[in-house]
Specification:
Blueprint (H helix, E strand, L loop, with lengths): L21 E4 L3 H12 L8 E4 L3 H8 L4 E3 L2 H7 L2 E4 L6 H8 L8 E4 L6 H8 L4 E5 L9 E7 L5 H12 L2 E5 L5 H28 L4 H22 L3 H8 L5 H11 L2 H19 L2
Parallel strand pairs: 1-2, 1-4, 2-3, 4-5, 5-6, 7-8
Antiparallel strand pairs: 6-7
């Protein structure tokens, strides 16, 4: 498929923002998180969302919300106007090629997969009405960090629709696709790094004598409050850190231990390694 010409956008029907049907190809954790967030926030009713899965246990997250689950992917594509590919990056090409005869230019296509660039997505499907969206599982609570890139034939209305959808379940950044791997590493994989840090801080609290439940709640709230301070005050995290760390005090003693353990270098290395792996997966 490499080098295949992508057809220009023919005359297409605009997406009806009040009545479009949304389909998920892939019914894993990310798809479930986004779908749940959209339903809970009242953006798209469950009656207009569809997916496909054969495993009864995996269907429950969707059926419990009133979302219809078909047995086969092609039924989702036939039913829906906006198609979100939420499968693992390793099988994305195979899935798109299998469904390609049904993926007309009248359907707006999205990919949630990291790594695969718009050029490849457009070549696989044969047209450029594609949007890359990189959200996080925090969509389920309306706090996702989402990055989006428009394909060469995605219309302005298409972009507005997707920005509205994902803006309802978090914050959206539109940016040049060349930044996508790094953005996914910080905004996407970065959530896992934070979970580890919360867990480690809670373990430290337990080691210092706190009950497990209290230690975990305190650690989670500390991260939540710190993140809110960065977002709402606009101050640099270093400045906010200095406001907490008094000379010769308890906080600076703890920061000293983090520095001895190369905490910041490890976090930076994790982001760089994730970015590199994302780039490799897109080759």
């Amino acid at each position: 498929m490499a080098g295949e010409e992508v057809s220009p956008l023919a005359q297409v029907n605009p997406i009806d923002k009040e009545a479009f049907k949304l389909g998920f190809i892939g019914a894993g954790n990310l798809a479930s998180s986004v779908a749940t967030g959209l339903v809970k926030q009242g953006i798209v009713p469950a009656s207009r969302i569809f997916t496909a899965h054969r495993n009864p246990e995996s269907r429950v997250d969707f059926t419990s919300m009133g979302i219809k689950v078909f047995p086969k992917n092609h039924q989702v594509v036939e039913e829906c106007d906006v198609i979100i590919f939420a499968v693992k990056p390793q099988i994305l090409k195979e899935v798109i090629l299998d469904l390609r005869p049904l993926l007309s230019q009248n359907k707006l296509l999205l990919s949630l997969a990291v790594g695969h660039k718009l050029q490849s997505l457009q070549e696989w499907v044969g047209h450029g009405r594609f949007v890359r969206v990189i959200p996080t599982t925090a969509s389920v609570i309306g706090e996702a960090a989402t990055v989006m890139h428009l394909g060469e034939a995605a219309t302005e209305n298409d972009g507005e629709l997707i920005a509205d959808l994902f803006g309802a379940v978090g914050k959206v950044w539109k940016m040049d696709e060349k930044l996508s791997d790094a953005a996914a590493a910080v905004g996407g994989a970065g959530t896992a790094f934070v979970y580890i840090a919360i867990e480690a801080m809670a373990d430290g609290g337990v080691a210092a004598g706190l009950p497990r439940e209290i230690a975990l709640s305190l650690a989670a709230q500390a991260f939540y409050g710190a993140a809110a301070m960065v977002m709402k005050t606009g101050k640099h995290p270093g400045q906010l850190k200095d406001q907490v760390a008094s000379p010769g005090g308890t906080t600076i003693a703890g920061i000293h231990e983090l520095e001895k353990g190369a905490f910041r270098a490890s976090m930076m290395n994790a982001v760089v390694a994730t970015t590199k792996r994302s780039h490799e997966m897109g080759q």
